[in-house]
Design goal:
elongated; alpha+beta
Length: 541
């Protein structure tokens, strides 16, 4: 076998250096691939720069058109082109650089398809299209490659409204109901010293006070939050404590000492772990960012709305609310907000849905009917649904006053209860025999309201609008039965006539005030106009 060993040894000698050859080949391939990757990377970076430059230049060109009257078709083209070139120069793009090119076109944008169309008469143009080109010289490959980017900017008329939150007034009952509800939503669990309470007068400052979203953003940034961009402001988790601290600082800066004290006190008691996003409360469509930052947010809405959002789907339970209802010994309630009060800011056509709620109000009846009977027992009224969809139907910017039109479609609701009550006859013992049935339902409805302003949204006419039903009509939907013949004979003649008015009083004294204060009207909607901004430049493509 010696010959075989000698043959294998000779073959190994022949293969020496093969790995070195393969390595050299792979090194060449790797160098080529790396060079290609570097050149492609530079090309991609130049394309991104072109897009950025085109966006900025189109917006600045549109701003020039908005701010200046047209001097004539050809001069308009020249002036807007100059504005675009000046914008590019400010942002570091050389219009005379090697291979660089800029094209400025004036036209219109279809509001539905967003398609840009040129116009012959430049004075009729309502949009600017900017095309920015550049040439990327390859670092490793021979030659170069051109790239370009387009951006179209037009003007947007922006409106804003809130739906679901009462800001017109606050009754005594509404104020009394808010305290225990908000305390559970805002305060840290187990903090018995924390109490968010005020009477109708005490809430008055919040009802009439405002703070801009831009001022809140600045104070949140000062507090260490990374919310410098609008997108981060809407989508960063913040706590109630952080929001109320920022609100207090902003109010202090604008000299609102009374409202500063309220928010500063609440900030020290508010939950520091439970977070939420402003974007869950405020819906801002593309183009509405500038208007949103300048919009004054009502302080009462801000306090209540943020508390509901931060509380999420957690149930709030109050064993006995401090509202007196005749023939009711006590009233307990529990509620879970399914959808919260909402704010919309953007162009016409946008909408938000709000204020659906699950709530159980349990009045403990103690109704004495002289010489007939005494009716006692709890009536757990379970309320589901409700709420509304608000839509910004139109924004009218021509002439003065300016206006927005907001439409609302209210949603179906149901209020039900099926308790068994005790009836005590004269000289008798309590009998748990009265089977009550409450079934109040409401279908959807719709309406709209035009709000006008002559002083850039500072004063609105009207200042608020209520659309839809105002009561549950509980008394019209109450029936009863009993297995006891004596009680059965008393139902229609004595018992129901005594029970129905009490339930209606529960509705008017407890349910409606609470829902209104929390921005969750049943079968209806409170709409408040917030802002109108005309001719804001926006990128449409």
């Amino acid at each position: 076998m010696g010959w075989l060993s000698n043959a294998l040894s000779a073959r190994r000698d022949e293969e020496r250096g093969a790995i070195l050859v393969l390595s050299a080949v792979f090194m060449v391939v790797m160098v080529v691939l790396v060079a290609l990757a570097v050149d492609i990377g530079f090309l991609g970076n130049d394309k991104r720069d072109d897009h950025k430059m085109a966006d900025l230049a189109a917006l600045d060109g549109m701003r020039y058109m908005i701010d200046h009257s047209c001097p004539g078709s050809s001069q308009q083209q020249t002036d807007v082109t100059n504005a675009v070139n000046q914008s590019l120069a400010r942002n570091g793009y050389s219009t005379s650089g090697h291979g660089n090119s800029v094209t400025v076109e004036l036209g219109t944008v279809d509001p539905t398809s967003k398609v840009f169309s040129l116009v012959a008469d430049k004075c009729t143009a309502t949009a600017v299209r900017v095309t920015v080109g550049s040439v990327t010289g390859f670092r490793f490959q021979p030659g170069s490659q051109g790239a370009s980017a387009k951006a179209v900017a037009d003007r947007a008329d922006i409106g804003g409204f809130s739906i679901g939150s009462n800001v017109a007034s606050l009754s005594t009952n509404e104020a009394a109901l808010l305290g225990p509800i908000l305390s559970q939503m805002i305060c840290n669990p187990g903090d018995v010293s924390c109490s968010v309470t005020a009477n109708a007068v005490g809430w008055g400052g919040l009802l009439n006070g405002t703070v801009t979203l831009g001022a809140l953003q600045q104070q949140l940034v000062n507090g260490g939050l990374d919310v410098g961009s609008f997108d981060k402001l809407m989508n960063t988790n913040i706590t109630l404590a952080q929001l109320y601290t920022a609100s207090a600082s902003a109010l202090n800066n604008q000299g609102d000492a009374a409202d500063y004290n309220i928010f500063n006190t609440i900030a020290g008691q508010a939950k520091s772990t439970q977070s939420f996003k402003l974007g869950d409360y405020i819906t801002v469509e593309q183009g509405g960012e500038t208007a949103a930052l300048a919009t004054g947010l009502n302080l009462f809405q801000l306090l209540v709305g943020s508390a509901e959002i931060a509380n999420g789907n957690n149930a709030v339970s109050v064993p006995n609310i401090s509202v007196t209802v005749p023939s009711v010994s006590s009233t307990s309630l529990s509620l879970t907000a399914v959808e919260k009060p909402k704010i919309y800011i953007g162009p016409a056509g946008g909408s938000v849905s709000t204020s659906q709620i699950n709530m159980t109000v349990t009045p403990n009846l103690n109704i004495g009917i002289p010489l007939v009977a005494t009716v006692t027992g709890g009536v757990p009224l379970h309320l589901t649904g409700g709420g509304a969809i608000g839509t910004l139907s139109s924004v009218a910017c021509q002439g003065s006053p300016q206006s927005i039109t907001v439409g609302a479609t209210t949603q179906a609701y149901a209020a039900t209860a099926s308790p068994t009550l005790s009836v005590t006859l004269p000289l008798g013992s309590p009998l748990n025999v009265l089977n009550l049935n409450v079934n109040s339902t409401g279908g959807s409805g719709s309406g709209s309201q035009v709000f006008t302003t002559a002083d850039q949204s500072k004063t609105w006419t009207p200042s608020t609008a209520h659309i839809g039903a105002t009561t549950l009509s509980l008394s019209a939907n109450v029936t009863a039965s009993s297995s006891n013949s004596v009680v059965s004979n008393l139902i229609n003649g004595s018992l129901l006539p005594a029970i129905k008015p009490v339930l209606d009083t529960v509705d008017s004294s407890v349910i409606q005030p609470l829902m209104k204060a929390l921005g969750a009207d049943v079968g209806s909607a409170d709409i408040v106009p917030l802002t109108v901004k005309c001719g804001l430049p926006q990128l449409s493509s």
